[in-house]
Design goal:
Layout (H helix, E strand, L loop, with lengths): L1 E3 L6 E2 L1 H5 L4 E3 L9 E5 L1 H6 L4 H5 L1 H7 L3 E3 L5 E3 L3 E3 L2 E3 L7 E8 L5 E7 L16 H16 L6 E13 L3 E11 L5 H8 L4 H15 L9 H23 L1 E2 L21 E2 L23 H20 L3 H12 L2 H16 L10 H12 L4 H12 L4 H5 L6 H16 L3 H9 L9 H12 L4 H11 L30
Parallel strand pairs: 1-5
Antiparallel strand pairs: 2-9, 3-6, 4-11, 7-8, 9-10, 10-12, 11-12, 13-14
Bound molecules: adenosine monophosphate (AMP) and magnesium ion.
Length: 493
């Protein structure tokens, strides 16, 4: 790999220096005919780069992994993972590269990582490639998540390679350039924990603490404190997913970031009608990663992290187990607190979480009445402003709303806040626009045959999700009938 003198970003490579055992130096395959499909200019500027330099041929070389920028040592990262419950000791970046760590103008460190940049020593049977559609999908959904205020990796750019990728059909290839707080996953700890050299797990813990949870360094037991910080970050994250109706789709332990960011957008989707059983992924046959199962699975994944951390928590195994178990058992309470606070804000209540019956009953009502998750929650602000037509119209039996609303209004009245302020507060937390499946599919289908118009328009709409804008009504509507039930997303990414 050649080195460019173009200084797009300020780079560092602390992960590779401190943990050389956890990755392999590697290079990208490059692209026959690179074409920039989308560049996140705002993110580039935040990271201290000149968007024009990224658009230039030297910039594209970096974005597809053909050239290693100065100060970087690109690697394929090693990690293990439980996939659908079964353990794979050696997964790793099969088609990805960690280019380096961008140090932004504020001194904050971000991984720059490429997906679809060619086969690596971890590729197993895979071709190392990615297709345009799924990479644009990650760009769109991760940027939508960011605009919703949910911790997530970001997408800096998607570059078409000019090459073809064989999936169920032949598709145009692409590389996604992704930015993340880091790519340390639960699976990274599972991988390190199985290596003979015990110092590696210790160094990984130190690295993760310094990077993501620095307060844990001051704790009596930093490994245990790191675990607690990750439990808290995951409880907060999954609560936010649940509040917006997001289904990750493939919550394997290699797809759980220690930083608490949403990572690895594959068969993810937002639900239309509220239903805890919602599954989109075509390969999730047992509904393991159904919408309503996500908090439970998050805790299961954290138990796998606890097992990996065990040798570093205490030399005495029973002591280590009891310490980690005590922390793990706090997950349900932490999750419930985050969810309850978020859900109360969505219905305009401010008081301390106590009895969640009103909230639980609302979800039951939404489920039984086939309510569109996003549209219905958004409609409640209009009900506070005195018009419950929209809320009622989104239910199969409008009268079912009235009994619940009577209890809700009593709680709102007891808090005694100005209804206009309550409704405005609700609008700030209930999005109008989420990446609805039918819109995403339409945009990706057009992009795959060369028309980026619908993709660009959808991206713009999703950048301001809480602000209803005239002319964009169609973006707020549920899928046309026939599209919703049975909709599947595919992992053939
Ligand atoms: P994912 O489901 O995207 O989280 O990927 C799971 C594992 O499969 C990771 O180790 C990926 O690097 C690997 N993988 C997925 N697709 C490919 C591909 N086309 N070529 C090589 N490795 C792949
Ligand atoms: Mg993954």
């Amino acid at each position: 790999m050649s080195v460019t003198s173009t200084s797009l970003f300020r780079f560092d490579d602390s992960f590779v220096r401190e943990l050389p055992e956890l990755s392999m130096p590697w290079k990208g395959a490059g692209a026959a005919d690179p074409t920039l499909l989308v560049l996140n200019e705002a993110l580039a500027l935040e990271l201290g780069a000149d968007p024009a330099a990224l658009r230039a041929p030297d910039g594209l070389d970096v974005l597809v992994g053909r050239v290693a920028p100065e100060g970087t040592t690109p690697v394929a990262m090693g990690y293990a993972g439980h996939q659908f419950g079964g353990f794979s000791p050696r997964l790793g970046d099969g088609r990805a590269l960690l280019v380096g760590e961008i140090v932004d103008p504020a001194g904050v460190r971000h991984d720059l990582h490429l997906k679809g940049s060619g086969r690596t020593p971890f590729a197993r049977g895979g071709d190392g490639r990615a297709a345009v559609g799924p990479m644009l999908r990650e760009h769109l959904v991760s940027e939508a998540m960011h605009a919703l205020g949910i911790p997530t990796t970001r997408s800096l750019a998607v570059v078409a390679t000019g090459e073809q990728v064989q999936r169920e059909t032949v598709l145009p290839g692409a590389v996604l350039a992704r930015v993340a707080a880091s790519h340390l996953r639960v699976g990274t700890f599972q991988y390190a924990s199985r290596l003979e050299d015990r110092s590696i797990l210790r160094r990984l813990i130190d690295h993760a603490v310094t990077r993501h949870h620095p307060h844990a360094a001051e704790a009596e037991n930093p490994a245990l404190a790191l675990f607690e910080a990750v439990v808290e970050a995951q409880a907060a994250l999954v609560a936010q997913w649940m509040l917006v109706g997001f289904v990750h789709g493939v919550m394997n332990t290699d797809n759980v970031a220690i930083s608490g960011e949403t990572i690895d957008y594959g068969p993810c989707a937002f639900m239309d009608a509220h239903d805890p059983g919602t599954v989109f992924s075509s390969i999730d046959e047992g509904a393991r990663y159904a919408y309503g199962n996500q908090p439970h699975i998050a805790q299961w994944n954290l138990a796998r992290l606890a097992e990996a951390l065990l040798p570093a928590v205490d030399d005495d195994q029973p002591t280590a187990i009891s310490g980690l178990t005590r922390v793990l058992e706090t997950f349900p309470v932490r999750y419930a607190e985050h969810w309850s606070r978020g859900m109360r804000a969505k219905v305009g209540l401010q008081g301390a979480p106590g009895d969640d019956a009103l909230l639980d009953d609302l979800l039951t009502l939404m489920y039984e009445q086939g309510a569109d998750h996003t549209a219905f929650l958004r409609s409640l602000a209009a009900a506070v402003r005195g018009d419950d037509t929209a809320s009622r119209s989104l239910l199969t039996d409008p009268a079912a709303f009235d009994a619940w609303a009577t209890r809700w209004r009593a709680d709102l009245a007891a808090e005694g806040r100005d209804p206009a302020a309550v409704a405005d507060g609700m609008d700030a937390v209930n999005p109008v626009y989420v990446p609805r499946n039918h819109l995403v599919e339409e945009a990706l289908a057009a992009a795959t045959v060369g028309d980026l118009g619908p993709f660009g328009r959808l991206l713009d709409v999703l950048a301001r999700p809480f602000e209803a804008r005239s002319g964009l009504e169609a973006y707020a509507l549920p899928a046309p009938s026939g599209f919703g039930p049975g909709y599947r997303t595919f992992c053939g990414t």
